Amino acid sequence: MFAKNSKAYSVYLLFRFVCSLAVSMSTVLSIVYHLEVVQLDAFQLVLVGTVLETSCFLFEMPTGVVADLYSRRRSVLIGMFLYGLGFLMEGALPWFAPVLLAQVVWGCGDTFITGALEAWIASEEEDKPIDKVFLRGSQMGQIGSVLGVVLGTLLGNINLQMPLILGGSLCLLLGLVMVRIMPETNFSPAIEERQGLLKDFVCLFKLNLGFVKGAPVLLALLAITLCGGLASEGFDRLSTAHFLDDTVIPVIGPLNSVTWFGVISLIGNGLGILASQLLIARMEKKGTVSRTSVVMSTSAGYILCLVLFAVGRSFWFMLLVFLLAGLMRTIKEPVLAAWMNDHVDEKMRATVFSTSGQLDSFGQIIGGPIVGLVAQQVSIPWGLVCTAFLLLPALFLVPVAGKKRD
């Protein structure tokens, strides 16, 4: 696969694979780690996610500006090293305060990568269909996640701290490798004449704001991203607790509660790989897909699956709708990113993608505590139902974005 592609595209696929492997290894059992080792309650569990997303919100715009002003490659590399430090801290220090601090560190690292990676490959591979590039990258990431889930689950059965420590070490190693092999040939700074970091930041922010205001489709797509953030934090943080508290997880041979979560993640990634391949094959056959239809159907499907998951009590039923909910998100995200890319000026790609990430984080900051309090004061299932309702506005925004040719 790599031999037939250009160097930038091959490096992109390799990066998505290894980065996803390391992150998946580190996070596949992180909720179980937080519950059983750090011993967080429901509100603390959501608060950990809120601190992570607050960090992403605060750092997203500055790091996006850095990528567009200085170097997208450099931004990605900084992000990988911060990822590694954050995971190492979280795994080595199993107490509430260090875990919160670790979210700040690797959350900051995530903002250096988000937007910069997409902008980098879009600029380096301008002649390739961007939908296919993002979908193939997503697919390679899912393959890496499968391996990461297997390794993380095996290590977690030995010690729940090991996946975080080894995953962080792999992030640091990947950063060192990328220093040597990651090219950047088509980058041009958004502002040619520099006036100092602060003035450059303000200038680029104003240019970005003016551009977004003048692009109604982009505004609608950013609003959809905000809704997705509102609806994701509760599901990500409470789904494990719902499985543990509201149903009986069957013990089948070596499948204990820890192993089951690894298997669930493994199945979810396998379904995502298959779905991405089917969508890529459809694009190769017909040339394109209707982004409006894909985003609308996956958003509606996600809402329905969330509600069914919340009210379910049978483990097998909950497993089915949980996997379907994850599949909806897997399909939607690269298509939404490609749709957004078509409405972004090349020199401001990283900043606009960072704005998208910032809105996603802001949505999670607002939605997370609301859902967490509902779960704490009423029940976890009602918290999940609340999460589903937070995505409803997206169903009205997708037709707005689709009024122009998608």
From the structure above, extract its key features.
406 residues, mainly alpha, 16 helices, globular
Describe this structure in words.
With 406 residues, the chain is mainly alpha-helical. 80% of the residues lie in helices and 0% in strands. The chain contains 16 helices and no strands. It has helices at residues 7-27, 30-36, 42-69, 72-92, 96-113, 116-124, 130-158, 162-181, 197-213, 216-246, 257-286, 291-311, 315-341, 349-377, 380-389, 394-401. The chain is globular. The chain crosses the membrane at residues 12-33, 45-69, 76-97, 162-182, 203-231, 260-281, 302-325, 380-401. It is a multi-pass membrane protein. Residues 1-405 form the Major facilitator superfamily (MFS) profile domain. It is found in: Cell membrane. Keywords: Membrane, Transmembrane, Transmembrane helix, Transport.
In short:
This protein is mainly alpha-helical and 406 residues long. 80% of the residues lie in helices and 0% in strands.
Write the layout of secondary structure elements.
Layout: H1 7-27, H2 30-36, H3 42-69, H4 72-92, H5 96-113, H6 116-124, H7 130-158, H8 162-181, H9 197-213, H10 216-246, H11 257-286, H12 291-311, H13 315-341, H14 349-377, H15 380-389, H16 394-401
Helix pairs in contact: 1-7, 1-8, 3-4, 3-5, 3-9, 3-10, 3-14, 4-5, 4-6, 4-8, 6-14, 7-8, 7-11, 7-13, 10-13, 10-14, 10-15, 10-16, 11-13, 12-13, 12-15, 12-16, 14-15
Largest sheet: none
How many runs of DSSP E, i.e. beta strands? Answer: 0
Strand proportion: under 5%
Mean pLDDT: 80
Distance between the termini: 29 Å
Computed Rg? 20 Å
Low-confidence segments: 1-5
Q: Would you tell me the structural class of the helices and strands?
A: mainly alpha
Give helix % range.
Answer: over 70%
The global form is: globular
Number of helices: 16
Spell the H/E element sequence. Answer: HHHHHHHHHHHHHHHH
